[in-house]
Amino acid sequence: MAQAMRPNSTSAGSLFATDGKSHPVPDTLLWVTAVLGILALVTSLWHNLHLLSSWAGLIGIFTGAYGQYVSVTTRERFALIMGLGASAVGFFIGMAHGGLFGGVIG
Q1: What is the DSSP letter of 49?
Q2: DSSP character for 100?
Q3: Closest CA to 52 of 91, 85, 96, 88
Q4: Among residues 103, 91, 104, 78, which one has the least CA distance to residue 17?
Q5: How far, in Å, CA of 53 to CA of 68, rounded?
Q6: pLDDT at residue 16 above 80?
């Protein structure tokens, strides 16, 4: 029960680090995935922005997957899954509206 006596503070590291250490790479991947996920999700609402939504979603999926691979704490993984889900939804809607190269090639 030693872990019950340990304080759970995030003041020593980032907001998402529960072990008190700094995790710059997973935190950067987390924020990049979140921004790309929001961008893909919002731009997928307009039919003519399918190129932006599908590419932002695809890149967000890859950064989120690598972020899951290198993440250390549960909080980082939770936020990465939110960004990864938003990226995937934006990607799939962008693909339904025209895809990665729709109208540019062919």
Answers
A1: G
A2: S
A3: 91
A4: 78
A5: 22
A6: no
For the whole model, what pTM was predicted?
Answer: 0.81
8 Å CB contact between 33 and 63: yes
For residue 99, the one-letter residue type is G
Sorted by sequence, the CB contacts under 8 Å of residue 34 that are 6+ apart come out as 79, 82, 83, 86
Rg of the chain on CA atoms, in Å: 17
- Tokens in use for 2? 């030693």
Q: Where are the beta strands (DSSP E) in the chain?
A: none
* Predicted local confidence at residue 21, as pLDDT: 81
Look at residues 68, 72, 66 and name the one whose alpha carbon lies nearest to residue 19: 72
b/e per residue, 44-67, with b = 16+ CB within 10 A?
A: beeeebbbbbbbbbbbbbebbeeb
Report the distance separating Cα 34 and Cα 90, nearest Å: 12
Give the type of residue at 65.
A
For residue 32, the model assigns a pLDDT of 97
